[in-house]
Each structure stands twice: as structure tokens, then as C-alpha cells.
Design brief:
Rossmann fold; alpha/beta; 35% helix; globular; three-stranded antiparallel beta sheet; eight-stranded mixed beta sheet
Length: 235
């Protein structure tokens, strides 16, 4: 099924969706590709399965976004990925992993990761990313907070940016920007659970990207690169 240019893979549940995502990754990712991983609860099981299978054959693995703090702090996406044993597999297979946190301040960390992203996009022939969509319509680390997302949207230079919103659950984040996401060749979006139904409805509804960052994915120049795997009915 194709909707607004996006290829949609309809699955019965998250287990079937994770299996579909895994198969796509094995088809898309090779030693000439860099794979960008998102944080959050949705892809955690996928990373555990990838580690257990031991078949992922990426040239390098990097991150889409990170909750800022000290390296390996309890809420970091990097620690979550480590706990799935995926980092151990990457080390054993001599696959370079590029984390975001370096025990620097948030501005310097974002600047350094921007340089890393530029290197990865230039060095590897192909890039693949795994994204999710939050119940509020955010994607990557770009929040459904219009003021912040509009600033990121207006930035036509940075591939990586940071923000500090202590009043929301996002708090401090470092993330690929909309421009950074636009550099990715193939994007797999995993959306499971009834709590994401409204987010998908908002995503496919015409409106401001700054209000619903997931609307970025249905833009003409982006949608052809996107595969959405979901257990929710899309009309």
C-alpha cells in the first residue's frame, strides 16, 4: 500500500512488525552503508533480536538522537542500545559505532556529532535509519513543540542540533535535524500500538511540520524513501 508516497507495511502486531523491519534491514544494509538507530521503547526488541541473530552487516552504526547527560547515564539511548547487547555484537564484528555523548557540554557535543554525521554521509555510499513516531507526533529527537521545531526547520545548515526544554518531558536533547534526516537514503518507521493511532492521523493530515514533526516524512522529496511498518489501520 502507498499513501502520500510512503510505502506502508501493514502487520498484525509489534512482533510481526519487528520481524518485517529486521528483514528490510538485512536487505538494505551492507558494508557500504551506515545505519542510524533511534532511541525509545519501540526499537528496543528489534535491537535485541539483531544482536542475537548476529547477521547485521553494516559498514558503521550511528545514532539518530540522544537524551543529553553524562555518558552511560541511566536514561541515555546509548545505554539502552548497549543493554540489548547490540554494541557487543558490533564490537565482535568489527563494526564501528558512533555514539553522541562524550562528557562534553551540550553545545560542543552537538557540534562534534554534526561533524561525525557529515563524515558518515560523505564516506558511506548509502545511509539507512530507523525512526519511530511518538504519540504526540514527534519523530527522531525533534519535539512536537512548535517553537523548537520551527527553529530546527528554519535551519538550512546544521545536520545535528540541540535544545533544552526543561518544562517538557523532552528536557535536553541532541538530534539529527530535518536537514540531517533528509540526507538519509532509506528510512524505516516503526509505529505500533493504539496510542499511536492519532499520531498517524495527524501525520497524514495537511498542516504544519513544526506542530507535528512526523509530517516531514510525507513531503514529496522524502516520502519515496520511507517505509512505514505499523499495526494500525491506515485509510
Amino acid at each position: 500500500m502507498i499513501k502520500d508516497g510512503i510505502k506502508i507495511v501493514q502487520v498484525k502486531n509489534s512482533e510481526e512488525g519487528i520481524e518485517a523491519c529486521k528483514k528490510l534491514l538485512y536487505e538494505m544494509v551492507s558494508k557500504s552503508a551506515v545505519l542510524f538507530l533511534s532511541g525509545g521503547s519501540t526499537p528496543k526488541t528489534l535491537y535485541e533480536i539483531l544482536a542475537k541473530d548476529g547477521k547485521l552487516n553494516a559498514g558503521a552504526v550511528a545514532m539518530v538522537d540522544e537524551r543529553f547527560g553524562e555518558k552511560w547515564y541511566e536514561d541515555s539511548n546509548e545505554l539502552m542500545i548497549k543493554n540489548t547487547q547490540l554494541l557487543s555484537f558490533l564490537q565482535k564484528s568489527n563494526t564501528e559505532f558512533y555514539p553522541i555523548l562524550q562528557n562534553e557540554n551540550i553545545e560542543d557535543t552537538a557540534m562534534q556529532y554534526d561533524e561525525t554525521a557529515r563524515y558518515l554521509f560523505n564516506y558511506f555510499q548509502k545511509s539507512v535509519a530507523i525512526l519511530g513516531i511518538g504519540a504526540d507526533g514527534h519523530t527522531a529527537g525533534i519535539p512536537a513543540i512548535e517553537e523548537i521545531s520551527q527553529k530546527i526547520l528554519n535551519d538550512k545548515f546544521s545536520l545535528v542540533d540541540f535544545y533544552d526544554d526543561k518544562e517538557s518531558f523532552y528536557k535536553q536533547r541532541i538530534t539529527l535535524t530535518f536537514l540531517g534526516l533528509s540526507k538519509i537514503d532509506q528510512i524505516i518507521v516503526m509505529v505500533f500500538g493504539k496510542d499511536k493511532k492519532k499520531a498517524l492521523q495527524f501525520m497524514f493530515k495537511t498542516g504544519s511540520i513544526a506542530q507535528i514533526p512526523a509530517r516531514f516524512l510525507i513531503q514529496k522529496e522524502i516520502s519515496s524513501k520511507v517505509t512505514l511498518i505499523t499495526d494500525q489501520n491506515i485509510k
